[in-house]
Amino acid sequence: MLAERRRARILEAVQNGRAVAVRDLCRLLGVSDRTVRRDLEVLDRFRLLRRTHGGAVATATVDDSRIPLEERYGLASAEKERIARVAVSLLNPNDRVILDAGSTTYQVALQIPRDLPLVVITHAINVVTALLDLPLVEVSVCGGALRRSNRSLIGPDTVKAYENVRADIAFLGATGVTPELDFVNTNRMEGEVKRAILRAARRSIILVDHTKFGKLALTPFASVSHGISGVITDRRTPEDYVRRLRDAGIWVRVV
Fold first, then answer.
1. What SMART domains does this protein's entry cite (predicted)?
2. Per DSSP, which regions of 130-250 are E strands?
3. Angle CA 233–234–236, to nearest 5
């Protein structure tokens, strides 16, 4: 197993269980304890988890920007694919769609049918690449400064570009959802871009898998009282979050 995929599996295990032992990771990954300890050292160095005696625990905050995009693709990948399929099912022919940067919105781009005409507006380079071979999809790119870790364009020019956009629906990712039901990320300028997207779209749907719930001390870009129409998440999301989102009047689809 490649190191990138192995470390993605470790991060997923830690986030699911909050604490894991080295021996359990060895069984999960089929590798030696020396390999697991080396992986934990790398992940701890980037503050993606905290090493303990004999294992590791989750940090309250995980900065996705520190994880290479290829590793993010492997985190909760099955759940992200299901979430993306439901997102695509909400699209109508000739919709104007905004796709945010991120691994789940990238999955949305990958699953758009070849026979569905759309206008897609995005600042995500990987989304543009995924749409290259879809002849019925018109792609509009909001320019800006390159953020290599996220394969996206951000900055004042990106915000300004979205201010001139009007869309039927937007799909956005998030680094986390706090216990107070704020939707958060870790980069201030990326947050500004997300807020501009929310202003540009008639409907805004947040795509978040179960690993994103319970994150703390990040920068909010939306809340249940402002900016979003709905949430698509997976069956492993804590029921309390789903209930409170619905109680706040948010449409929630669990897949």
1. DeoRC (SM01134), HTH_DEOR (SM00420)
2. 137-141, 145-147, 152-154, 167-172, 176-177, 182-185, 201-207, 219-223, 230-233
3. 125
pLDDT at 27: 92
Collapsing DSSP to helix, strand or coil, 133 comes out as: coil
Q: Set out the domains of the chain in order of their start, with CATH numbers.
A: 3-59 (1.10.10.10), 72-254 (3.40.50.1360)
**Can you list the residues of the chain whose pLDDT is less than 50?**
62-63, 65, 73-74, 217
Identity of the amino acid at 50:
R
What pLDDT score was predicted for residue 53? Answer: 84
> What is the C-alpha separation between 62 and 218, in angstroms, rounded?
9
Cβ contact 179:214 at 8 Å:
yes
User: Which pairs with CB-CB distance under 8 Å and at least 24 residues apart come from 237-245?
Assistant: 237/208, 237/209, 237/210, 237/213, 238/210, 238/213, 238/214, 241/177, 241/181, 241/213, 244/181, 245/181
Give the three-class secondary structure for 67.
Answer: coil
